[in-house]
Amino acid sequence: MSDSDDRGEIVRPRRPAYFCALAARVLLLPTVFLISCSGAGAEQIQLLRSEIFSLRQDQRQLQHEVSAIDSLIHLRVQSLDGFNANFNEDVREIKQRLAEFEQRLSDTEGRITRLTSAIETAGAPGGSAGQPPEKAKGAPSAKDLFDLAYKDFTSANYQIAIEGFADFLQRHSDSPLAPEAYMYIGNSYQALNKYREAVSSYTSILEKYPDSPLNPDAMYKIGDSLIKLGDVSRGETYFQTLIQRYPDANAAKLARGRLKP
Predict the structure, then answer these.
(1) Are residues 150 and 95 in the same domain?
(2) Which of 38, 112, 127, 248 is the most exposed place for a label (fewest CB within 10 A)?
């Protein structure tokens, strides 16, 4: 309860001293506890921080290793893609060459069949009358060989045609068909884009058969092949020579159209 002093004012009761001391101790207790634990807590926090720092370093190292592995895998994949591309290209080339070989084999077998038929026809009874001894034994005639090669040429079997005409020329170089055989050999080489070989064949006509009516055509073909080889100057020289020697030939008209005005 409150008391009044002589002046009538209310006087608050004083707290006992021991109560104030107890309150002070209670207030100081958490501080004392924190002070007692602060040393151990700081040490643990420092250890945790060290472990976190170490883990972050390990994380960065792992990231670098993963990046390196990704780069290596990317390079390996690119290398594998390149290998596959080269491998597929090699396979395609081999298949193409095999197809060409099979075509040549088929063409050769066909030529052998036709040649065998011609031999049998030449050696048949009644087929040898009035023939030279070698034809009487079944050897094909010059025309037979020429016709066989010409059939290959018209069938676009140019390499087989070249071999056929070469066989013809080896056996019958003095035949009236020889200049024409050289012409078809040259034309076959041109069809195969082998222009140097074509020039050589056409030149044989000019050198071996200077009076052949095929000379104007041979000169034009030489000029054309030289131009295709990039030797424009020599090619045009052949055109000019052709026009001078054979001004009325059809080949000369073609040559005039090829020369620059």
Answers:
(1) no
(2) 248
Backbone angles phi, psi at 27, to 5 degrees: -65, -30
Q: Which residue in 183, 239, 173 sits closest to 213, CA to CA?
A: 183
Q: Helix 158-171 crosses helix 142-154 at what angle (to 10 degrees)?
A: 170
State pLDDT tens for residues 146-162.
999 999 999 999 999 99
Burial (Cβ within 10 Å: 0-12, 13-18, ≥19) of residue 179 = buried
Nearest to 187 by CA among 176, 197, 198, 173: 198
Domain that holds residue 196: 141-258
Element (H, E) at 161: helix 158-171
Are residues 159 and 222 both part of a single domain? yes
Same domain as 148, residue 132: no
Q: Where are the beta strands (DSSP E) in the chain?
A: 3-4, 10-11
Look up residue 132 and give its DSSP letter: -
Q: Which of 111, 139, 167 is the last residue of a domain?
A: 139
The one-character DSSP state at 7 is T
Quote the pLDDT of residue 44: 65
**Residue 192, C-beta contacts closer than 8 angstroms, at least 6 positions apart:** 158, 159
Q: What's the CA gap between 16 and 31, in Å, rounded? A: 24
**Distance (Å, whole) CA 147 – CA 170:** 15
Q: Judge whether 234 lies within some domain.
A: yes
Give the residue from 104, 139, 174 where a domain finishes. Answer: 139
Number of domains in the chain: 2
What percentage of the chain exceeds 90 in pLDDT? Answer: 44
157 and 229, same domain (yes or no): yes
Query: pLDDT tens for residues 197-218?
Result: 999 999 999 999 999 999 999 9
